[in-house]
Amino acid sequence: MRAELEARDAELARLRTELAETNSGVLALYAELETQADALRRASDLKSSFLSNVSHELRTPIASVINLARLLVDEELGGGKLDADQRKQIGFIARAGETLLELVNSLLDLARIEAGRMEVTVREVVIGELLATLRGMLRPLLTRPEVALIIEEPPAGLMIESDEGKVAQILRNLVSNALKFTEHGEVRVRTSVADGWVTFAVSDTGIGIPEQHQERVFSEFEQVAGPLQAKAKGVGLGLPLSRSLAELLGGTLTLTSRAGEGSTFTLRLPARLGGHAERLGGRTEAAVA
To answer: What average pLDDT values come out for the chain (289 residues) when binned by 10 residues?
Structure first.
């Protein structure tokens, strides 16, 4: 019995030693993971700071280029007399500047969201008025007579409590993106409400997106190769930004599509965001009954 007890004591001592060594290894692993997490956080903060600073520095000179191009073609504002070819070339400069400015603004918005500095301003929004404004803003993008933009009337009196500018920005990105990749048919916007949620569905009859690439379109700077990609402007920031804004507003942005059969992007937002404004880092402008 004495020998058996000694053997058990020895086994327990061995197990205690192994357990201590395991605990030390786990603690070391936790410390290493925490160090790596800190490094990733610092890298993310540096990236956000870099994007924000660069975007701020670029906006002013790009805006100056755009304004100077407009002045050159506007005789009433002091521009000289230009022939048709000169006006065409200056138009290229202005459009290139506008594309760059859009890119810079998207980078700045993404940097603000990642840094948690994007402010949400909540107030009541009349959906019918929002869609009417959107229709007017997007009319210049209808460059193909074979494509119709149809914005269906929302349910009568429908209102949403959210950030109007950000909701409009998401819908503008979705519709303009749909118009880029639709050669025939239509781009249609539908609105519905149920169970305290408002849903905007932007559908098109365009080229569609293969299932294996559908998540890629929501990644920054990712674009799916296709027959219309070379003609379409953009660098792959519109959809990632739109999804980030949707999540910032307490909602979701999803995609259903089949290659060659069109796509539907569905934006789902809470009908009332005021109670969540503090959690989202925003503020409520108007009291909501």
So the answer is: 81 85 83 79 67 72 84 68 82 83 80 79 93 87 86 92 93 91 92 94 91 82 56 68 92 92 94 60 39
Query: What residue ranges of the chain are covered by domains with CATH 3.30.565.10?
Result: 121-278
Q: Do the beta carbons of residue 167 and residue 128 sit within 8 Å?
A: no
Instruction: Kindly state the tokens that stand for 23.
Output: 């605990």
**pTM for the predicted model, two decimal places:** 0.68
Cβ count near 123 (within 10 Å): 17
285 close to 162: Cβ distance less than 8 angstroms = no
SS (H, E, C) 27-94: HHHHHHHHHHHHHHHHHHHHHHHHHHHHHHHHHHHHHHHHHHHHHHHCHHHCCCCCCHHHHHHHHHHH
- Check the CA dihedral 269-270-276-277 and report its sign: positive
**Domain 1-118 falls in which CATH fold?**
Helix Hairpins (1.10.287)
Residue with tokens 């304004």: 67
The answer to whether residues 218 and 179 touch, using CB atoms and an 8 Å cutoff, is no
Give one word for 120, left, alpha or beta, with left for phi > 0 and alpha for psi -120 to 50: beta
DSSP assignment letter at 186: E
Topology of the domain covering 121-278: Heat Shock Protein 90 (3.30.565)
